[in-house]
Write a structure and sequence with these properties.
Rossmann fold; Alpha-Beta Plaits; 10 helices; binds adenosine-5'-triphosphate; transport; ABC_transporter-like_ATP-bd
Length: 299
């Protein structure tokens, strides 16, 4: 079991007599990308602001690497790198000038070699001497992540990092966050109001609504879990002679364990049925999230 690096315990936040966060508890482990999912206005930013020490909590506690934000604030915050809302970048300066500026402002000494290392890590070598105003949104985000990682934090917190990114940018971000988590052992927390994006990026996800914990899911399928598998084929009617399922448009929808999926595909191929795509859905998460957000302001 990986080490817990972020721990929220019974956190409450009341603003002007309104209970915004109610008894919220969850944990983020070393080396995982953890999704923080909830409809607009459910309290994600408020929680992240408490985790990063920007606002206080009314009761409960948040521990980062074993240090309480309440009683050991500086020690706790030392381990956090975060982008809350937009990254703070100077557009008229180059990427390198931005990084050097932030390195100078940091509480700990940041060696030039660390700056070089981080530029490589976020793959900005080619553009680092160009002015930030010429950067794409994805590049600005990578520079923001570089800034947040300069001081080697154990936890990286990103509030709605996919906002405004195109699908290619989202894919790139996912690859990077997975790299940071798996190769560098960083605990990454990403908030979003879009299940589709969280599903692509995260190992586990917590859903909140109205400031309250709803449920936590592991997104990596368990070996024995029964999944919904959608197979796009040229002849759906024929396909159903060989596997058990139902037809939806040009897809056949089959319930199967992960282990059994290759056998399904093999059976169809042996009957000369052409397969154009296989999609695996974690149906329970999708259903729960849809139910939860019905009638809300979700996109
Ligand atoms: N300073 C404040 N004063 C009054 N209400 C606030 C304040 N900050 C947040 N709220 C309210 O708390 C609730 C949660 O807001 P928050 O911004 O944390 O949600 P969110 O999940 O991040 O939403 P979004 O996805 O839209 O950013 C909202 O109803 C918001 O209006």
């Amino acid at each position: 079991m990986e080490k817990t690096v972020v721990s929220l315990r019974h956190v409450h936040k009341t603003i002007k007599k309104h209970a915004i966060i109610k008894d919220l508890s969850f944990e983020v482990r070393e080396g995982e990308v953890y999704g923080f999912l909830g409809p607009n206005g459910s309290g994600k930013t408020t929680t992240i602001r408490m985790m990063t020490g920007l606002i206080s909590m009314t009761s409960g506690d948040i521990e980062i690497c074993g240090h309480s934000i309440r009683t050991e604030r500086e020690k706790a915050l030392e381990h956090i790198g975060a982008i809350v809302e937009n990254p703070e970048l100077y557009e008229y300066m180059t990427g390198m000038q931005n990084l050097k500026h932030f390195a100078n402002m940091a509480a700990t000494t940041i060696e030039p070699v660390r700056i070089q290392e981080i530029i490589k890590l976020v793959e900005l070598q080619d553009a680092i001497h160009k002015k930030v105003k010429t950067y794409s949104l994805g590049m600005k985000q990578r520079l923001g992540i570089a800034q947040a990682l300069l001081h080697r934090p154990k936890v990286l917190i990103l509030d709605e990092p996919t906002n405004g990114l195109d699908p290619a940018g989202i894919r790139q971000l996912r690859d990077y966050l997975q790299y940071l988590a798996k190769e560098e052992g960083i605990a990454v927390l990403v908030s979003s109001h879009l299940l589709s994006e969280i599903e692509l990026m995260c190992d586990r996800v917590v859903i909140i609504q109205n400031g309250q914990f709803v449920r936590e899911y592991a997104l990596k399928e368990q070996q024995d879990e029964i999944l919904t598998v959608m197979i796009e084929v040229d002849r759906p009617d024929d396909a159903l002679h060989f596997v058990e399922g139902k037809i939806e448009k040009n897809m056949i929808v089959v319930r199967s364990s992960r282990e059994h999926i290759p056998h399904l595909v093999k059976k169809l191929v042996m009957q000369d049925i052409l397969i154009y795509g296989v999609t695996v859905k974690n149906k329970s998460l999708e259903e729960e999230f849809l139910l939860l957000t019905e009638g809300s302001t979700m996109q």
